[in-house]
Structure to design on (584 residues):
């Protein structure tokens, strides 16, 4: 028997596998057992009503995709009345992803989610589609510190902060979030990107720019997970191109305590189950008694990264 | 026969290809042997199909396709598709004996209310592939079908035999013969309504024809349904890619084609 449980900032999960925000909802319940998940993570909700971006909202790459969904949201009351009861049917802890245009609004949303049935808040301070040209709080350490401090003051729930890869110094942003009171870091959101259809000469996304996800981004986000794990002491939740148990293992070796499966669920609806089952099988095969033994277990003892020295 | 939205179970299943043939210069029909899904699929529902990587074509996302024929008795499930891009070019290379994954049946299909004795189906081009199973469902339930079938030319009349086989009243209108104008369609629909043959309207495949049917449905107080398409990713309502606007009592509402549809109330549809 492998002990698959992990503890993320005071919250114990039965296993380290959960969906990524925006790639989960009622629709996967037909193929995935939600009671088996380490946690459930909602699509980002906002206080303001948002209709989202113009179509096309997705475009395809050879090994990933771009999206510019734009966080359509029906507001907090709608979430509490309609979505929350759905998730309460299941035993897995519910993590609610939130976003807001200002620091004050972020704090206000967090306050309103002090509800039974909500186990943690994931602050999406990194969506490239909500601010103009992909700007987001998590692009700088200063703005990250300001919004996380306000969130920390507003909620007693475990606070997970979702970082962006669209920053020059993710280590500094990670430390800023930790110092401001984050309980965990989700590394990371999508990479700001665009593509152009050379037949029509038009951008492939209705919003021109969007976020890149899927297997193609994995090495970039594994690198950021490694950097954040070096820079911060709080747990890291790895998120970026995880489609198989092998990918999840790689993230944990880089320093992640848990993983989120996102885009993979769009192309392989059973991906979450496959990752959970495969992760346990890997631990058994390699003789790890506890999945937590994988965290940061990368064998890099004699190796150096010059850029890391600069960043630290 | 009265269908409850989303009541049917769906799953992601490896399915064996048993036929994948050209049916015209542009279209192929692929047939899978997949009894569990063939038994569950209802007219108007769709599947999200994994398309293989072939050469330079690397389709990452699945391709949504409406059910062309689902036969619980034989376990066969058919799709009609135009070979147009990376996904369908890959799909076109699958040979009998090969496998791919199908997620479905998905979405809300057509609804046939028990009180409807005669329906009118208006379709164009590949939209007829979506409507053919509806015509068969209606016929099997003893509901009379009048079909107005529009296409560019004879070559595009792919599902005509399916409507003929159930004994539908059929009117064919072709661009190539100058008979597919909106006025002609309106006159035909009015005729069916006057003859008591239009308890409900159904359409798919043409914005222009949808608008004509919607206008007439409103005027004559005939309920209607329209099957819609939109570029999709997940197919199960999670990603919010496949949204369209609808007009609900003067208010613009955004709905997901995969989850709230793909069959919608004709009266609320908005020109695309």
């Amino acid at each position: 028997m492998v002990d698959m449980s992990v503890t993320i900032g005071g919250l114990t999960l039965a296993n380290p596998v959960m969906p990524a925000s925006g790639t989960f909802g009622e629709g996967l319940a037909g193929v995935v057992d939600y009671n088996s998940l380490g946690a459930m993570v909602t699509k980002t909700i906002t206080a303001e009503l948002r209709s989202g971006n113009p179509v096309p909202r997705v475009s395809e790459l050879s090994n990933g995709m771009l999206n510019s969904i734009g966080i359509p949201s029906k507001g907090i009351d709608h979430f509490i009345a309609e979505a929350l009861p759905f998730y309460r049917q299941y035993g897995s802890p519910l993590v609610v992803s939130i976003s807001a245009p200002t620091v004050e609004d972020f704090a206000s949303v967090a306050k309103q989610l002090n509800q039974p049935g909500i186990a943690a808040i994931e602050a999406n301070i990194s969506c490239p589609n909500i601010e103009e040209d992909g700007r987001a709080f998590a692009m700088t350490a200063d703005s990250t510190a300001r919004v996380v401090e306000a969130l920390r003051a507003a909620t007693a729930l475990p606070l997970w902060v979702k970082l962006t890869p669209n920053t020059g110094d993710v280590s500094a942003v990670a430390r800023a979030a930790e110092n401001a009171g984050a309980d965990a870091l989700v590394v990371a959101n999508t990479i700001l990107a665009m593509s152009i259809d050379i037949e029509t000469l038009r951008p492939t996304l209705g919003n021109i720019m969007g976020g890149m996800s899927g297997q193609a981004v994995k090495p970039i986000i594994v690198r950021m997970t490694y950097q954040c794990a070096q820079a911060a002491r709080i747990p890291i939740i790895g998120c970026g191109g995880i489609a198989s148990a092998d990918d999840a293992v790689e993230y944990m070796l880089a320093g992640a305590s848990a993983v989120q499966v996102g885009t993979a669920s769009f192309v392989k609806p059973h991906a979450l189950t496959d990752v959970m089952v495969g992760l346990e099988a890997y631990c058994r095969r390699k003789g790890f008694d506890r999945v937590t033994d994988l965290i940061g277990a990368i064998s890099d003892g004699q190796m150096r990264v010059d850029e890391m020295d600069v960043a630290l | 026969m009265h269908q409850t939205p989303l009541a049917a179970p769906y799953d992601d299943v490896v399915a064996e290809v048993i036929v994948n043939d050209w049916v015209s210069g542009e279209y192929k029909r692929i047939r899978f042997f997949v009894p569990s899904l063939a038994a569950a699929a209802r007219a108007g529902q769709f599947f999200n199909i994994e398309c293989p990587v072939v050469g330079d074509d690397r389709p990452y996302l699945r391709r949504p396709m409406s059910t062309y024929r689902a036969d619980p008795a034989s376990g066969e499930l058919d799709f009609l598709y135009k070979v147009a891009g990376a996904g369908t070019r890959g799909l076109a290379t699958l040979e009998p004996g090969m496998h791919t994954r199908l997620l479905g049946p998905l979405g809300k299909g057509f609804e046939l209310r028990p009180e409807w004795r005669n329906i009118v189906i208006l379709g164009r081009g590949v939209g007829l592939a979506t409507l053919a199973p509806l015509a068969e469902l209606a016929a099997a339930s003893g509901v009379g079908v009048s079909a107005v079938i529009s296409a560019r030319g004879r070559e595009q009349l792919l599902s005509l035999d399916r409507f003929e086989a159930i004994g539908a009243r059929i009117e064919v209108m072709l661009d190539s013969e100058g008979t597919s104008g909106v006025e002609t369609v309106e006159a035909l629909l009015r005729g069916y309504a006057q003859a008591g043959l239009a308890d409900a309207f159904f359409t798919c495949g043409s914005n222009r024809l949808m608008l004509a049917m919607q206008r007439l449905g409103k005027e004559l107080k005939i309920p209607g349904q329209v099957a819609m398409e939109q570029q999709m990713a997940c197919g199960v309502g999670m990603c919010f890619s496949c949204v369209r606007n609808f007009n609900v009592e003067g208010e613009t509402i955004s709905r997901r084609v995969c989850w709230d549809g793909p069959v919608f109330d004709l009266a609320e549809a908005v020109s695309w």
Observations:
- The longest helix of chain A spans residues 271-286.
- The interface with chain B takes residues 22-28, 30-31, 43, 51-52, 55-58, 60-65, 67, 69, 72, 214, 265-270 of chain A (CB under 8 Å).
- The domain at 6-311 of chain A is CATH 3.20.20.70 (TIM Barrel).
